UniProtKB/TrEMBL annotation:
It comes from the Bacteria. It holds the Pfam family Sulfate_transp. Keywords: Membrane, Transmembrane, Transmembrane helix. It is found in: Membrane. This is SulP family inorganic anion transporter. Residues 7-369 form the SLC26A/SulP transporter domain. InterPro entries: SLC26A/SulP_dom, SLC26A/SulP_fam. The chain crosses the membrane at residues 12-31, 75-97, 109-132, 152-174, 186-205, 225-250, 270-293, 313-342, 363-391. It is a multi-pass membrane protein. It comes from Streptomyces polychromogenes. PANTHER family: SULFATE TRANSPORTER.
Length: 475
């Protein structure tokens, strides 16, 4: 915890992080199809609850664009009252993973799958927010949204489009302003400018609907827990837990590279996220994860201890209680602009180009994961990506070759490498191409791995040969 020498730095950083978090909390909630206040509630829990844990000193948690797609699908399938149950169950799964010290194993997930997941999320986010930008109702499925983009021009509210485009322009250009001005987050400036323009010009655009934080908080009832009996709901819980955990721990690895303080304890951080999501579930709020945008802002603002992220939750709570009416004048198009910019930043164009030059197989895994998410859902797309990554790794590691050595009149065939079913056709082709006349002795001592399929096939091939006296069997 801070002393007198660090409190001032942590206090200043907490204000910056709260200003970064505020428009993102609201925007993620609106894009997820839930009341705007629930996004702020999750941000508050991410600070005042998760912030106390020692897993990662400077990482900041809250609602994230990466979970928007999954939450939107869950709310559509099971209803808003069931969201709390799903988030609570996901938090309990994270607690279990942390208690079993499985946090470090998330680092074993293929980076290509992670980049593909982020790319898929970014594309889905962009497809949905284009409709929100134009004030047009969006189709339910992602492919339908993409198919209807060409018709948006004839239906769009161009006043809303102008506000959203202006917000994006501010976000893009804000990086070029002097450093002393960049203390104020670009997202806040863009939303504030769009709100001021809408009020000054009296534009008839749709704004955020506010019911009040206390009214929006709705703990799940006992009847809502019945949703967990369905296979789809269990799949959603697992997806929430795994994706939130992976995003958190990858964010932690990135944040650790940005400062010289204590390194992240992955298992403790997973427990912290589990506790935070359990509390969010009890409040009926959005799920949380560590967010790299807020975390990097925290580090860059000079935070020294975890007090900065705790205080940022306090600022969000103060705003939600004292100034909720401010949200009522924020145009939805401005928040769509913020999320479109966030979705664009999730697209790993440089990563794809670099992988294509050096590891084309990894680039294929990335693209297939992203396309699968677009075509199916986030959970199913990630499973496809993981399966392809495992198959690729198995293929690349199962190298096997056949060496032929004459020992007098006997041909010694030595099999070297890793003999798995993936290489069985190649192995049998090599063996069947051997000359039929001489006696053959099969030597498997050079194999590092031999699975059952290959062993059975090799024994069957050997029985077809005419063995030398006393040389029967596989040696």
């Amino acid at each position: 915890m801070p002393g007198a020498g660090t409190f001032r730095a942590d206090l200043g950083a907490s204000v910056v992080v709260a200003l970064v978090a505020l428009p993102l909390c609201v925007g993620v909630a609106v894009a997820s199809g839930v009341p705007a206040e629930l996004g702020i509630v999750t941000g508050v829990v991410g600070g005042l609850v998760t912030g106390w844990f020692r897993g990662s000193a400077l990482q900041v948690s809250g609602p994230a664009a990466g979970l928007t797609v999954l939450v939107y699908e869950a709310v559509g399938a099971y209803g808003l009252p069931a969201l709390g149950v799903l988030v609570l169950a996901a938090g309990m799964v994270q607690l279990g993973l942390g208690a079993l010290r499985l946090g470090r194993w998330f680092r074993a997930i293929s980076l290509a799958v992670v980049h593909g997941m982020l790319a898929g999320i970014g594309l889905v986010l962009i497809a949905g927010q284009l409709y929100a930008l134009g004030g047009v109702p969006a189709p339910g499925k992602t492919l339908a949204k993409l198919g209807g983009v060409h018709e948006l021009g004839a239906q769009a509210d161009w006043a809303a489009v102008g506000l959203g485009a202006g917000t994006i322009a501010v976000l893009v250009l804000w990086r070029r302003v002097p450093a002393r001005l960049r203390v104020v987050p670009g997202a806040l400036v863009g939303v504030a400018a769009a709100t001021a323009a809408a009020m000054t010009l009296r534009l008839p655009v749709e704004t955020v609907r506010v019911t009040g934080v206390l009214d929006a908080v709705a703990p799940p009832g006992w009847s809502d827990f019945g949703e967990l009996a369905s296979v789809g709901a269990v799949g959603t819980v697992v997806a929430l837990a795994l994706i939130a955990s992976a995003e958190t721990l990858f964010s932690a690895a990135a944040v650790d590279r940005m400062h010289d303080g204590p390194r992240t304890d992955y298992d403790r951080e997973l427990v912290a996220q589990g506790v935070g999501n359990a509390v969010c579930g009890l409040l009926g709020a959005l799920p949380m994860t560590a967010v790299i945008v807020r975390s990097s802002a925290n580090v860059e603002a000079g935070a020294r201890t975890r007090a900065s992220r705790i205080l940022h939750g306090g600022w969000l709570l103060l705003f939600a209680v004292a100034l909720p009416q401010v949200l009522e004048v924020v145009p939805l198009a401005a928040l769509a602009g913020v999320l479109l910019h966030a979705g664009w930043k999730l697209l790993p164009a440089r990563a794809v180009a670099a992988l294509w030059r050096t590891h084309r197989g990894e680039a294929v895994v990335l693209v297939v994961t992203a396309v699968s998410i677009l075509a199916t859902s986030l959970f199913e797309g990630v499973l496809v990506g993981l399966g392809l990554a495992v198959a690729k790794a198995a293929w690349e590691t199962s190298h096997v070759h056949v060496e032929e050595v004459w020992e007098g009149e006997e041909l010694c065939v030595r099999v070297v490498g890793n003999a798995s079913f993936l290489r069985l056709p190649k192995l049998l082709d090599s063996l069947e191409a051997l000359p039929h006349g001489p006696a053959v002795r099969l030597d498997l001592s050079g194999l590092r791995h031999l699975d059952h399929a290959c062993l059975t096939a090799l024994e069957g091939w050997e029985r077809k040969r005419t063995p030398l006296p006393g040389k029967e069997g596989v040696i």
